[in-house]
Amino acid sequence: MTTRLQKNIKQYLKDNIGIIGALLILCIFLSIFPKTSGAFLTHKNMFNVLRQISSNLFLACGMTMVIILGGIDLSVGSIIALSGCVAAGCVARYNLPIFAAIIIGILIGMAVGMMNGVVISKTTIPPFIVTLATMNVAKGLAYVYTGGSPVRVVTKAWQFLGAGYIGGVPTPVILLVFVLIITAVIMNKTKLGRHIYAVGGNAQAAKFSGISTARVKLLVHTYSGIMAGLAGVVLASRMYSGQPTAGDGAEMDAIAAVVVGGTSMAGGSGKIGGTIIGGLIIGVLNNGLNLMNVNSFWQYVVKGIVILLAVFIDYLRNKKKD
């Protein structure tokens, strides 16, 4: 058992040596840079980074599967807004139990994801177009539900999921560990996981081999919606309110984490282990730029360049294989 674990760890380090190195270089730079050296490596900031990246990695878990299929999900950011607003409204407006509100928020994400999956699996409409449409639908519904104003929740218990601690560790981080384990098991130990790679590698060949490509696409997009719904509820809890502007641009951070983590945009290859490192890189980068007081507009430029570099590296890697 120990030998097998050591072998897996060595393989993981070998597969992700490039991005692990990039993460270490980024952390070292922020540790010695004058503007950030005193704040970056503090206990408080490290937990702050982990809390912040948890929502992005929830999205990235579903996005990894979607991109391995050769698709993309642009609706996750808007699902965050809709799920968070409705969940907060269930507590603030309808006095429902907090657990029920959380479940309702996640179910809303699941419903939108399922809608994406049904259309994508039953038609030849590109996932980009389908999820672009549902992105606007979900965002519009969030604004309709809230009237454009935040839904504030003053209940102390509501704040536990997003802003609480368990044994000194932020609650979202503990929740993230369970989500990452579940995602890794689905991708590496189940029939669905094998089918995801098969469909992403060659959908036609997978269909001829007896795999229900429609079912795989439906399940993957549903899972992506569930992850977005969970992220929305956690974010609403952390902000003490459901906000229709929450999740703006979140899909870009999730895609960045997945692509930087080594998942190919062409589909068929990628690992959740790489996505974790990719999420850490994006989270540390965001945190570092904030500590350096870099203008938020320039932050978009930096993240765009990072995504472009990651895609270019993926292009070179695929070209070398050919």
Structure overview:
The strands form two sheets. Strands 1-4 form a two-stranded antiparallel sheet. The protein is globular and about 55 Å long. It has helices spanning 2-15, 17-32, 43-68, 76-92, 98-122, 127-146, 160-163, 171-189, 191-201, 203-208, 213-238, 250-260, 272-291, 296-321; strands at residues 151-152, 165-166, 169-170, 241-242. The model has no long low-confidence stretch (mean pLDDT 93). 44% of the residues are buried. It has 322 residues and is mostly helical. Helix 4 (76-92) runs parallel beside helix 6, helix 5 (98-122) packs antiparallel against helix 11 (213-238) and helix 8 (171-189) crosses helix 9 (191-201). Helix content is 75%, strand content 2%. The protein is built from 14 helices and four strands. The longest helix is centred in the N-terminal third of the chain and has 26 residues, at 43-68. It has a domain at 53-246: ABC transporter involved in vitamin B12 uptake, BtuC.
Indicate the topology.
Blueprint: H1 2-15, H2 17-32, H3 43-68, H4 76-92, H5 98-122, H6 127-146, E1 151-152, H7 160-163, E2 165-166, E3 169-170, H8 171-189, H9 191-201, H10 203-208, H11 213-238, E4 241-242, H12 250-260, H13 272-291, H14 296-321
Antiparallel strand pairs: 1-4, 2-3
Helix pairs in contact: 2-13, 3-8, 3-11, 3-12, 3-13, 4-5, 4-6, 4-11, 5-6, 5-11, 8-9, 9-11, 12-13, 12-14
List keywords for this structure.
single chain; 322 residues; mainly alpha; ABC transporter involved in vitamin B12 uptake, BtuC; two-stranded antiparallel sheet; two-stranded antiparallel ribbon; 14 helices; 75% helix; 2% strand; globular; transmembrane transporter activity; transmembrane; cell membrane; membrane
